[in-house]
């Protein structure tokens, strides 16, 4: 797994998720925010692997209200 600048459904990718997590980690934000950012990073990694391996079944559906 490497950082990529690819765009996912949330407008980022592994690279932007890592940057966001690192930024808030350095600022000492609340635990719940770090948990949310960690999940965003995990989803970005998951989506990146799904795209690079060509496994579309892994990608979570995007729901719109």
Structural class: mainly alpha
Beta content comes to under 5%
Helix content: 55-70%
Outline type: globular
Q: Let me know the number of strands.
A: 0
Rg result: 13 Å
Provide mean pLDDT, rounded: 78
User: Would you list the SSEs in sequence order as H and E?
Assistant: HH
Largest sheet features: none
Describe this structure in words.
The chain has 65 residues and is an all-alpha fold. The protein has a domain at 14-58. Helices cover 57% and strands 0% of the residues. The protein has helices spanning 14-27, 31-53. Helix 1 runs antiparallel to helix 2. It starts with 13 loop residues before the first helix and ends in a 12-residue tail after the last helix. The model has no long low-confidence stretch (mean pLDDT 78).
List the keywords.
65 residues, mainly alpha, 57% helix
Secondary-structure map:
Blueprint: H1 14-27, H2 31-53
How would you briefly describe this protein structure?
57% of the residues lie in helices and 0% in strands. The protein is an all-alpha fold and 65 residues long.
